[in-house]
Specification:
By secondary structure, this protein is an alpha+beta fold. It is built from five helices and eight strands, in the order ββαααβββαβαββ.
């Protein structure tokens, strides 16, 4: 088992490698209107190919033994640009508990331990909830990526480019407080 495949465990969240049993829960989450608004066009076949069959880049976000969402962790290969790009989604049943923030903090700490110096996110400019969550975690607005995402119907929308650097949090961002 590679280091990336080892589970990362926080107070509420476990990040782990995908399993075939995650297919149906991920498809259900990606079909939720509040998730499919941003993650467009996910069929069972696409989920299988992009999430289940890609254990090197996929982390399942698990809460209380349930699949709560997933994350792509795309580490750059060029040592001159030690950057990781992350994308994640959380099912609506798990929102409001800072699950995404904890998942990101766990993943970012691992990336920093591996020598990565910067993590970037690029949410749709209209995804206010995600942007607020990312900023609470310490991500900073860098700029707008114009005409970035092809939306249903073919029109383009902007994304907000955010980053968090190791110099912001040498030991990684803190986990969200839990009551």
């Amino acid at each position: 088992m590679s280091e990336d495949a080892l589970p990362l465990v926080g107070p509420l969240v476990t990040l782990r490698a995908p399993e075939s049993a995650d297919l149906d829960p991920l498809v259900e989450i990606l079909d939720e209107p509040e998730v499919s608004l941003w993650w467009v066009g996910y069929t069972p076949q696409r989920v299988q190919e992009e999430f289940i069959d890609a254990p090197a880049v996929t982390r399942i976000i698990e809460v209380e033994g349930r699949t709560a969402g997933a994350m792509f962790v795309l580490r750059g290969e060029d040592p001159e640009y030690p950057t990781t790009v992350m994308h994640l989604f959380i099912g609506t049943a798990f929102r409001g508990r800072r699950i995404g923030e904890e998942a990101l903090a766990l993943a970012i700490r691992t990336e920093f331990d591996a020598g990565i110096r910067r993590v970037t996110l690029d949410p749709n400019i209209n995804n206010d909830g995600a942007i607020r969550s990312y900023e609470r975690l310490g991500f900073r607005r860098i700029g707008v990526l114009r005409d970035y995402q092809v939306r249903p119907g073919g029109h383009l929308e902007d994304a907000l480019f955010l980053d968090l650097t190791r110099s912001d949090f040498p030991d990684g961002p803190p986990l969200p407080p839990r009551d």
